[in-house]
Amino acid sequence: KRWREILRDLPLPRINGEGRLEEWTESVEASDPAHRTLSPLWGLFPGDRMATEASPVWKTAARKLLEFRLAAGDGDANGWVFPWRAGLFARLDDGDRALEQLDRMARCCVNDNLLPLVTDWRGQGRTAKWFGSKKILMIEAGLATPAVIAEMLMQSQGGGIRILPALPAR
User: Fold this and answer.
1) Cβ distance 109 to 82 under 8 Å?
2) What are the tens digits of pLDDT across the range 102-131?
3) Of 164, 158, 120, 157, whose CA–CA distance to 138 is shortest?
């Protein structure tokens, strides 16, 4: 009971004048809008505080932050960024954009044995250039990808179950 009270009392991220989620508790201009982390969106995915149908204002603000970041490019992305973005789009009921992120990961960060890697080993310029040409397993992406596909097929936030909420059109 105490943990539920604590979670309930945690403030949600602020929404700025442009309608997008703020990353910090006060307004701070983004110094690197393309940065790979999307921490303010944790409440949308993998969390569910902003994901329910009862919170369209938060979902709209979350989408605006995600679109703002993507408009700035991939920045120093790595293998786990793509499934995280896909999960966010799945919670926003945008199956096409979720699939697009999974496709981007598959094209640059998935090894021949289908295991996801930290960086773009195929040299497409989509990720940070960490570790030179070494192929290093990115377990977070490997675990997140099936979870995202499940989110695209079925979601159960807010006490209900939704079937095929983010089915791609293609």
Assistant:
1) yes
2) 999 998 889 889 998 888 777 776 676 777
3) 120
